[in-house]
Structure formats: C-alpha cells, structure tokens
Design a protein that fits this description.
The chain is an alpha+beta fold. The protein has helices at about 15-35, 40-65, 70-95, 105-115, 115-120, 135-140, 140-165, 185-200, 225-250; strands at about 125-130, 165-170, 175-180, 210-215. The chain has a four-stranded antiparallel beta sheet, with helices on both faces. A hairpin with a 2-residue loop joins strand 2 (about 165-170) and strand 3.
C-alpha cells in the first residue's frame, strides 16, 4: 500500500497568509464596533466575538511556523464551544421578552455589589412600575401589553446606558436599576423626560406612565438587600398614589 505524505509546496504560504488575514480583518471589524457600541451588555457581546478569533489566529500562526502541526481547526472548535457556553449563560440571565437582565441576574449582581462596602456606599436602587398596565392589557390585549413593556425597556435601557447603570426586569411590569447615588436624580429626570417624549411622538394606542421609587445603599435604615428593595418599593407606591390622585383630579 502506497503511503501519501503531506508536503508543503512553494506556494503554501499564500493561502495560509490569506486565511490569517481574513481572521485578522474580522477581528478588526469587531474591535471597531466594540469601540463605538454603547452599553455594557452590547460591549460584552463584542468581547465574546473578539475572543472567538483568538484561538483560530494563534492556531493559524503556529500551523504556519511549525511544519506538520495542525491547530487551526482545534482552535476554531474551542472558540465555538466558548461562544456556545456564553450564549447558554446569556439565556439563563436574560429576560426573554425585553432582552434585559432578568431577576436572577439582578439578584446575583446586587449580592455582589452589596458585599463590597466601598461600592455599596456609592450606589442606590431605583424601582419602577408601569402605571395602569393592567388596563392596557384588559383594553387592548396582552400583545399590546407586551409591546408596552418592550417600549418601556428600550427607553430605560437608553437612559441607563448613558449613566452606565445596571438594569433588569424585576417581574411583570416592574423594572429595577442599580445606579450611582449621585446620578439617581438626573437618571430619574431623564427617564421621565424620555417617557414624555415617547407619549408626544408615538403612534401607539397606549400612553406610558411610570411610578418610581428610590433607596440609597448608605441609608442608615437599610441593613439588608430585602430592606433596600422594600424601601424603594414604599417610595414607588407613594409616587403611584400621587399619580392616582392626580388622575382623579384630572377627571373632575
């Protein structure tokens, strides 16, 4: 039986370099997007895509330099496995309707922040509830209700990206934000401003209105995470009660 040996020809370097250049070009495109993208979530996705390129590029370089070694496909397989694991983790921590962090991811994040005393002193919690959400569902149906939640999440995400704050869907029609204490008034003002702009410009059958409560980590009355959330929740319902009373006055 005749044995067939792998032998490099004189032009071997051309396809090898071309393949390497394609990988490097793709890495450059992803890096450029990473530089301009807004929001930690999107930047995290770009980071994952950049790490995908590392192992195939290293494998290609070693394969070109060291004769008889084949590593590029091993590197590509490992990279695909890394991306798959990242996608699985993302599905576990992401709210399926809005694409925001879910309550599980919020609990993980808040527990981590609460353990770091220096960060805890600087942070605060904003709890948000969509006013008259049940009315939207009852009158227009659950699909329109879902659209109201999606529109709200887009507005909140845009505001939080500007302040580099952590945003999650807390459950139902409630959203929760972890932000810097010094930024919370400006962030709340920006959210209300964006909601007003949406209502003035949108062509949807519904209008959006939010009740917002705030609690600072450094509040002497706050000793635990549950107390922090409960304090923000009480403030939010004070805001909601004021909204309801105002609605009654407007109807008179």
């Amino acid at each position: 039986m005749k044995q067939i040996w792998y032998v490099r020809g004189d032009l071997f370097i051309i396809p090898s370099v071309l393949a390497l250049l394609y990988l490097l070009l793709a890495a450059c495109v992803i890096f450029r997007k990473y530089k301009v993208v807004v929001g930690e979530e999107e930047r995290g996705k770009m980071k994952t895509m950049m790490t995908f390129m590392v192992l195939p590029i290293l494998g290609a370089i070693v394969q070109i330099v060291v004769y008889g070694v084949s590593l590029i496909w091993i590197g590509a397989t490992l990279s695909i496995l890394m991306v798959f694991i990242n996608i699985q983790n993302s599905q576990i921590t992401t709210d399926m309707l809005t694409g925001l962090n879910n309550r599980y991811q919020f609990n993980r994040y808040l527990n981590k922040v609460f353990l770091i005393e220096n960060e805890r002193e600087d942070d605060g919690l904003i709890l948000i509830d969509v006013n008259k959400f049940k009315t939207i569902n009852d009158i227009y149906g659950h699909l329109v209700g879902d659209e109201a939640l999606i529109k709200t999440s887009v507005i909140l995400k845009d505001c939080c990206n500007k302040h580099k704050s952590f945003l999650a869907r807390y459950g139902g029609d409630e959203f929760i934000i972890v932000c810097k204490d010094k930024d919370h008034q400006e962030l709340i003002y920006l959210i209300n401003e964006k909601i007003t702009e949406f209502n003035d410009m949108n062509k949807e059958v519904f209008k959006l209105s939010l009740s917002i409560g705030y609690a600072a980590f450094k509040d002497p009355m706050v000793k635990t995470i549950d107390e922090l959330v409960a304090h923000a929740d009480r403030e939010m319902y004070v805001n909601k009660k004021n909204y309801q009373e105002q609605m009654k006055l407007d109807l008179k």
